[in-house]
Structure formats: structure tokens, C-alpha cells
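Newbie here. four chains, one complex. Structure please?
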Amino acid sequence: MVRHERGEMFGRPRSTTHESIESVALDLFGRNGFEQTTVDDIAAAAGIGRRTLFRYFASKNDIPWGRFSEGLAELARRLEEAPRDEPVWQALHDAILDFNAVPAGGEDQHRRRMRLLLGTPALQAHSALMYAEWRGVIARFVAERRGIAADDVRAVVVGHAALGVSLAAYETWLAHDDADLGEQLDAALGALRDHLAE
Amino acid sequence: MVRHERGEMFGRPRSTTHESIESVALDLFGRNGFEQTTVDDIAAAAGIGRRTLFRYFASKNDIPWGRFSEGLAELARRLEEAPRDEPVWQALHDAILDFNAVPAGGEDQHRRRMRLLLGTPALQAHSALMYAEWRGVIARFVAERRGIAADDVRAVVVGHAALGVSLAAYETWLAHDDADLGEQLDAALGALRDHLAE
DNA sequence: TCCCAAGTGGCACTCCGTGTCACTACTGTG
DNA sequence: CACAGTAGTGACACGGAGTGCCACTTGGGA
């Protein structure tokens, strides 16, 4: 029973990748709509079996989210590095701006993906499960900074609120072709502060 | 082509009610779990056909939400009646407390229902669609008070934040058997204000 | 050359959700 | 007491998502 470091070099090589399937699927979703595209369509277009597709993605709904979970680890690390003399809300705001920064040139693709995610009922619903993980990262950061438990309402509510600010910004960003996502995030946060400070 | 006021008294009488199906279903969900209970199980237990069940509820996921949509109209009316010299956040907070007030004696049932809704992945996901309607009511109220459009980020973000406060309160309420929902809502809102005012 | 580990994909199955359609149980009228 | 009109019911069949099972394929290592 020997342990191999590069386990990937054993056994039959993979016939595809997450990225390849995702790319093919987003193309089909964009052309025919999410509901109208069946898993069989995607598998056929990707040149793999339907059963194989379900080994790469747990569900059809998971496909448009791509490597989101990996991005969360990055967000968590980014928060840990925030200077400790900065207000918590400020550190959060900066990290969230960073997290949502669109890689230069990828603006169009990002818009298409987010329009799909926020505009398709089945995906809106499924996204709630992704958001829960995202909120968890925020709540744990707040809890650590404040010296309270991660399930304390004071930490949990900040996770929910930060998500709300982000989603509000995304919705208005998608509604206006000429809008800048970062500016919308600023505006949303500012509006919430004003609202509560009235 | 005569119009009858009491249209219900025509034709074949209904063989069941939303409430009856819901009650049977919640009982099965509680005993066997949501995923393990099939629509056929519910229909059989309710003494109706499977097809009939789908005429009363659009999906299995919709059953635990019961008459939620009707409650939304009540929330909207409640907000319209709020005194106009009250701060917007205050009017919202009062209305939300009211909306979530548990009918005396129904605390246990409310807890069971919310535990099901917030603790079942499939329902967490589906709930996002209900939340969207709820947020819409809040955003429209804020927009009306502030004289801005309902899709303005300043109104949208308040809808998201109010939902976040409510969900945070529900989560901690469910986690502590001796907690009071109203107090958790107060605590969540207070914590968010403190957080942003830092 | 043979073996083994990991990946693949076909098959059959369950369950959700939907379209169709004949049937049933009422009400009001002549 | 027919009879027509109306609304609700449920059986049947179908398509799509997701799952368990298992034989097959493709490489590397002994």
C-alpha cells in the first residue's frame, strides 16, 4: 500500500475538466436558456457521458457557480490580513470590493454569468446555499475581531447585511450597462449607513 | 354567461383545503424528514390524488410556506399606515416585529415550521424566491417614502438589509430554545447599527 | 506481460413536475 | 325530475434531474 504524492498520475487520466464543462454549458445556457438546456445536451456538447458530468458537478445548478468555493478561501485569507486598527466594516468593505473586482477584460463574461445567476429562478434559489458559505466567512471574521462566538447574532447579522449590500449592488449594476460594480457597492453601503443613522 | 358572486358554490365542491394538505405534510416532514417524504406519500396521507396536490401547491417546496404570500399583503398595508413623521427604519422595524409576531400558543408550531424552512437545504434554496417578494415590499415602501424609484440602490439595499436582520434573528432564535424572537430582532438591528456607526 | 488504481459511461431506477382527458359532484332552471 | 352548465378530481403518460451499480478503459508500476 504505497502512498504516491502525485496521485493524479495514477490510473486512467481524466477526460475533461471543470473549466471545459463550464465553458460549454455557459455557452449553451446563453444561447438556449438555462431551463431549456438539458444535462444530456451539455454532456453531449462536452463530449462526455452524462454520468461523468455528475461526477464533476453535483447538480446542473452548480455549474454556473464554477470555482466559487475556491474564491471563498481567498476572501477569508484577505480578511485575515486586514490591519487590526481599521474599523471592521471598513476591512469588510475593502475585502468585498476586492473579492468582486472583475479581472480586466472579463467584464462582459462576468456580467453574463451574474445575469444568469441572478436572473434565473432555479439559480436564484440554488445560490442561497452558496451565499450561506459566503456569510459564514464574514461572520467568522467579525466574531474573531470582536471576540464573540461565530453564531452570535452580532456576527451573523453582519454576514447577512454584507451579503445584502453586495446583492443590492449587483442587481443595480446589472440593470445599468454603464454602471461600475465598485461604485454600486460604495453607494449601497453608504445608503444603508444613512438609512440606519437617520 | 352569468357572473355569480359566490363562485365557490358552483360545480363540484373541493375535496380538500390548503390547510389540510399542509397540516398532513408538515406532520410527515416532521416524522420522516423532508427529503424522505415523497409527494405520493403526502397525497396518499391526505386522501387525494397526486395531481390534485399539485393544483393546490405548485411544488413540494411550496408546501411549508403555507399562506406566506397572503401575509405579504398584510405587511404592505401595515407599512402604508405607519405615521409619516417616524423615521423609515423605525417604521420598518415595528412592522417587521408585527409581521413576525407569533400568534399566542402557536410558538411551538412556528418553531417547527421555521426549523424546517431554515434547516433543509432544498427549502433554504427555494425560500430565496419568497424572500425576493418580501424584499420587494420593503423596497417599495422605502422608495415611496424617499421619493425615489423602487429599483434605486438606496431602496433595494434596505430590503436586503431588513431581510438579513430578520434571518439573523431567526437563526439565533432557533438555536436557543429560550430565546424570544422579538428580542432577537431588536438585538440584530441594534448590532447592525453599531457595526456601521463604528 | 500482468496487475492495479482511478476514471468513464451505460443502464435502470426513483422522484418531481406537467399536459391531457375522461369522470364526478354539485347548482340552477324548466 | 331531467338536464345543462361548471368546477374540481385523479388516472395515465411523459420528460428531466439525480443516483446506485458495474463492467470497461487507460495509464503507470512491478
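Moderator note: The CA atoms of residues 66 and 187 of chain B lie 28 Å apart. Chain B has two domains: 13-59, 67-197. Thread marked as resolved.
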